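Treating backbone geometry as a discrete language has practical consequences that deserve illustration. Part of our work consisted of pairing the sequence of a single chain with a tokenised description of its backbone. What the numbers capture is local backbone geometry rather than side-chain detail. For completeness, the protein is quoted in full, as a sequence line and a line of structure tokens:
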Amino acid sequence: MSFTVRTTAPFRADVVGSYLRPEKLKNARNLHRQGLLDDAGLKQVEDECIRDLIAQQIKHGLRGITDGEFRRSWWHLDFMWGLGGIKRVETKQGFHFVGIDTRAETAALEGQLSGHNHPFVEHFKFVKQFEQDGYGLQARQTVPAPAQTLSNLLKVRDAGTSASTWRDFYASEEDLAEALGAAYREVFADLYAAGCRSIQIDDCAWAALLDPDLVAKNKLDVARLSELYLLANNACLKDKPSDLTICTHFCRGNYRSHFFSKGSYDGVTTTLFAKENVDGFYLEYDDERSGSFEALKAIPHDKQVVLGIVTSKRPELEDLKALEARVRQAAEYFPLDNLCVSPQCGFASTEEGNALTFEQQWAKVDLVVELSRRIWG
């Protein structure tokens, strides 16, 4: 059987985005927080570490290259803080994960939303230059999905802050969702002008809607939130250039090897899978929390699906033959030619990182690359 040769993201062997931070970078960020290293000094260290990281990505056979989120503390909040109209606020408690809580801070509205002059555009430009260092490389920018930002803004007072809420600036939740989409489109337009052709929107918001315990605990209106999340995400995709690939990474949480939600994809087959206007989905399938592959039937067959069947949370290497069997099982519900493989999430969604060594991280990447070669050649 012959397969399509993939020259743009998602690639047959892919990675969601973040990597473990080297000690040199962690030390520099700590010095910067204490006022002992200026912005220029921090950027110099970041640049050096990102150069080394991209060289490693190329060496290990990846074609989608990123900065590993090395310029961020959080996978999501740093982007939100870069939008106009959003500020950083401290909270009484962090985000709750199974077995652990995060640092206590979040994002809140302080005015009308805007995507003008977002710092991530300059971050992308630095990665873009390395496309010339290898055949078929493509620089990617990862950002939290509009639904994720919307979720944070809707519940900011629940986090124990006295910050403003969306009601201080927008007449309805729909207006807020549309405004978020418009702000994201500004950022995406600037990224596109900088040469970006691959964007990944990371989304934990939907995962909470699939976990019956979280739904009950937080009294979530699943139908209403599904409507708003879909509105926000599709709003950012309006008038997307045809040569710009935007994919969703569906995430169940990743903080120091802990997760925050469980539940199969069955609850989003008629909404997210069927109606979100992205080019593809990066889906977590590393353990039983994700349910069966049957849910893939709801995804239109002109889209791409990246199966996250290698875990980034634990160091033990999965069995190669067992992984291949799982991909072929998924192909019973979705075309094999439109499938790819990856770890289920990044290796360091926050700067603390998961409970793996650098050697174990790259062994996981090597496993993904080898798996893709066995299946697609």
Observations:
- Residues 60-376 form a domain with the TIM Barrel fold (CATH 3.20.20.210).
- Residues 157-162 have pLDDT under 50 and may be disordered.
- The longest helix spans residues 39-59.
